[in-house]
Design brief:
The protein is mainly α. It has twelve helices and three strands, in the order ααααααααααααβββ. Strands 1-2-3 form a three-stranded antiparallel beta sheet, with helices on one face.
């Protein structure tokens, strides 16, 4: 395959962005919040935890600690009890208390709106700062790179990096600054709805035509289907496996079916809903 030029990659990135905007017009920050303080707390809690779980925890937390001064005077034990179900509650509790104390001491209890000031807060890295700046202050100073964003952009061959900050730099060079915050929400929505890590649904993907990984997988499926058609009267039942082209395929109910008709009938086409393991 010919190496993609920088201009071709940029054009492909624009098409991907447009397609994702059409597919997910309501993409937004999934963490419930009413102000920058609430978003900062929720983002710290979201480390190694689902947004849905965080949203279950934060109402009681904010009822007890509605602002940074109140939290700064809180107790480690009580904070831990409120956030226990988010995981890593001891470390998160220490960070929340230290973060609140820093806000009171350095910023009058208010969340700052600059990258450097945010990153100086305990428990806040570049990813968290990007979330706050983009969603609480409407500033596109960077791109939030979470697990979905990194994984999907590597599948799309928009980056080869694994370090989040390197991924961010690659994406910032490809997408317009005004879309940086939205881009993260679009990719996260896509990762949850279609490009699921264990079983990507390439047949339903709105950006499959611009995804090298989807094209490669589709080629393998087509070749596997062609191979199956050469063996009449055979049906692969759910749970069975077969090797083709050095790849292991497994038949999963309602996901991937290879079947050919018996007798003199014509082979049935193979479904493009599939599950594939290398």
């Amino acid at each position: 395959m010919a190496r993609e030029s920088a201009s071709a990659r940029a054009a492909r990135a624009r098409r991907i962005l447009a397609a994702l905007e059409r597919a997910y017009p309501d993409a937004h920050c999934a963490l419930d919040h009413a102000d920058p303080y609430q978003l900062l707390v929720a983002t710290i809690l979201s480390a190694q935890c689902t947004d849905a779980r965080v949203n279950l925890v934060t109402p009681a937390f904010f009822a007890r600690y509605p602002d940074a001064p109140t939290l700064a005077n809180g107790s480690q034990e009580e904070v831990e009890d409120l956030i226990r179900s988010t995981g890593f509650f001891r470390n998160k509790g220490k960070n929340l208390l230290a973060m609140a104390a820093a806000l009171v001491e350095r910023h009058g209890g208010q969340v700052p709106d600059s990258m450097d000031a945010l990153r100086d807060l305990p428990g806040v890295g570049r990813k968290t700062a990007n979330v706050i700046l983009g969603n609480a202050f409407g500033r596109n100073d960077g791109i939030t790179v979470d697990t979905h964003v990194g994984r999907i952009t590597r599948l799309l061959k928009l980056t080869a990096a694994t370090d989040p900050e390197k991924v961010e730099r690659d994406l910032m060079a490809l997408f317009p600054r005004a879309k940086w915050t939205l881009l993260s929400h679009l990719l996260i929505s896509h990762g949850r709805a279609v490009c699921v890590a264990r079983r990507p649904n390439c047949a339903a993907c709105p950006i499959a035509s611009d995804c090298p990984s989807a094209r490669r997988a589709a080629g393998r499926i087509s070749a596997a289907c062609a191979s199956a058609r050469q063996r009449p009267a055979r049906r692969l039942i759910p749970g069975s496996r077969f090797l083709f082209g050095g790849a292991l395929f497994r038949v999963v109910p309602f996901r991937f079916t290879l079947s050919v008709s018996s007798g003199a009938g014509k082979p049935q086409p193979c479904s493009l809903s599939w599950s594939h393991w290398k």
